[in-house]
Amino acid sequence: MVEESGVAPASASMVPPFTREQELTAFREMLLIRRFEEKAGQLYGMGVIGGFCHLYIGQEAVVVGVKMAARDGDQFTTSYRDHGHMLASGMEPRRVMAELAGKRGGYSKGKGGSMHMFSREANFYGGHGIVGAPAPIGAGVAFANAYRGDGRVSLTFFGEGAANQGQVYEAFNMASLWKLPVVFIVENNRYAMGTEISRASAQIDLSKRGAAFGIPGKQIDGMDVRIVKATADEAIEWCRAGKGPYLIEAQTYRYRGHSMSDPAKYRSKEEVQKMREEHDPIEQVRARLIADGMSEDELKKIDANARKIVAEAADFATADKEPDPSELWTDVLA
Amino acid sequence: MTVNVLMPALSPTMEQGKLAKWLKNEGDAVKAGDVIAEIETDKATMEVEAVDEGVLARILVPGGTENVAVNTPIAVIAEEGEEVADTADHAPTDRVGEEDKAQKQAEAAPPVPGQTAPQDEPGEANKAATKAAVEAATPAPKATSVAKEPSATVAPEVPEGTTMVSMTMREALRDAMAEEMRRDPNVFVMGEEVAEYQGAYKITQGLLQEFGARRVVDTPITEYGFAGVAVGAAFAGLRPILEFMTFNFSMQAIDHIVNSAAKTRYMSGGQINCPIVFRGPNGAAARVAAQHSQDYSAWYSQVPGLIVISPSNASDAKGLLKAAIRNDNPVVFLENEILYGKTSEVPALEDFVLPIGKARIARPGKDVTLVSFSIGMTYALQAAEQLAKERIDAEVIDLRTLRPMDTATIIESVKKTGRCVAIEEGWPQCGVSAEIAMRVQQEAFDYLDAPVLRVTGKDTPMPYAANLEKLALPSVADVVTAAKAVLYRS
Known about the structure:
The structure holds two protein chains of two kinds. By secondary structure, chain A is of the alpha/beta class. Chain A has one domain (2-23, 49-84, 127-305): 3-Layer(aba) Sandwich (Rossmann fold), CATH 3.40.50. In chain A, 44% of the residues lie in helices and 11% in strands. Chain A starts with a helix and ends in a 15-residue tail after the last helix. Chain B is of the alpha/beta class. Chain B contains 15 helices and 22 strands. In chain B, strand 10, helix 4 and strand 11 form a beta-alpha-beta unit. At the A-B interface, strand 2, helix 6 and helix 7 of A face helix 5, helix 6 and helix 7 of B.
């Protein structure tokens, strides 16, 4: 993917190496998302989860790298491929899973589902089902930060498909005009549903998409959590210094279809296989940890722990009750 | 040949203005394009240019004169050396005479006014309708814009003995925002031209000066984007007042109004509120045609998660806008450009806040219930006055809030009168009046002595031509006709 873009992203040698502790954090967080999403896929197949369900498998390094650069109080806003962002924000896996299952213990009491979830306490502002909507909403969260002068940064994610929406550029313009502290992170997983980026975008270097508004942009290898973290550090520092927005195009890949009902016939099995074998974000960290002397057993323990958390989340979601019928009428108005 | 210079209309809804000063004196030579005078309206100061070459022979309205009606001759320009004896003899040569206009309207008027009535309407009503249509076409000047202010009966919300102050709806809205901005530092205003320009319709006049650019924010012309930004700010705990220059442009932003603002509280299980007011002029102004004249009352009032308010007078506008700003829900606040300049009595209370969701009985009566809101109230109240002359005692209800709709007040009235006419400027299909008719038949069917009738805007895009525009809008005559129809009176 890096080669195909024609633009060399920051290479791993240009970013500071992770400490052992950072590698372990990245490994643990990404693995939790991976295992959670695998379980969600299973539960969807069993009919526990319904509707639309968009899995984040393959893209874990993007949100985890950004989270590692963020400070407490910084806000996350994203689109409907949002489970990873919620877990990275520190939301409880069981309550996220319960929401996916449409149960009363879910973050939205079962009324939002996979695509529409929020957590005020985790500073997670959704979870938006409309393609492109996170851009102005995330800019609006940043507007509030600037209004209060509280030094927070709004971390706003959307896909490369959304990057063609008009409202994204309206948001870029205002964010730059008003010097809003917002990092726009385009997660370029190359396929907007079934449309490969070059079939939909006249300019496929998405890091240039902010240039017309004076927004600095960087195209990076979004499969390497160290590069994501280092770039997010720069971007967040830029925002916190009051210099306005920053744009990151993180080149990534989703292993699964667009949603559960997508057989992904628009790309070859070989392409997916190659990506998994050569660029998997979690395997990269695992390899480095092993090379650094970590034992397979220690890493397996981390995996076992992630599986345990996810299994408990699934059990909770499965056993939890549906919302009370009276909930139909609550939360319409404050 | 002499030419009269007429008091110009500087905006689609201007009816009068102040002739601030003359920049030329009688006897001065002028040529086309010369600035000869300055005109002030409540919105702006504008220059008047001469349209012909000649001599400023007479100044008919001295500088400093207030309330000069549009189209009044203010000066006479004569050819050089020409005698100008008596100014009163000079008919304007550059305008179609009022008689001509009336004639054309009469020709264009259909035999039956277009209020939505059942096909099997009683014969008497049909006759009355024809008569009313003819009446409507006679030169009752500007029925859509010169309607009297709804004469608010003493509302229970105002304590007895309260001092009342006359002010325009424009001033009332501005005061409401300023008071709430003083009260809560999280309240801010954003929109196109709200700050430096002082508001496209001068509703935000003076706010920049008092509150500064941090809290009075000019936006680019980018409704979809800034609606999303404001919604995001509201999610994060601020209380934006978002002005749309007109609600016609809110159609660009309707995704964020409906998908983001209205639904997020529900989708978040009650965690994320969206305390935002979307406000601006809604519906037809005057002669701005199809893309600038749409009434969105029915559109927004269909959406759960929104509150929709549409006041008819300055007092309600102030009390309800303050309530809207304090409300933790997204509120769509539909104003009306024609009503901006109308003056009415506003209680001089330190903190005048009205309840959302409560209709007001603007005129008590016993024979027929007229239900309306916003500018529809001007037709309803004038119709009630005309009906009174024919000994028909109409009760007029001003909904004020469209969602949640105060059905109880309507039903209580219909149980008393047994007859109901709903009036709105919006389109008929799935309109607010359609909703009123449904609720009345559902909850007061046994009390009805006639089918509920509606008077609505016509089922067409808004035409530009003055006569067609008048036909497209409801009229007082339409309301009178409908009221008589439900009373089986002719």
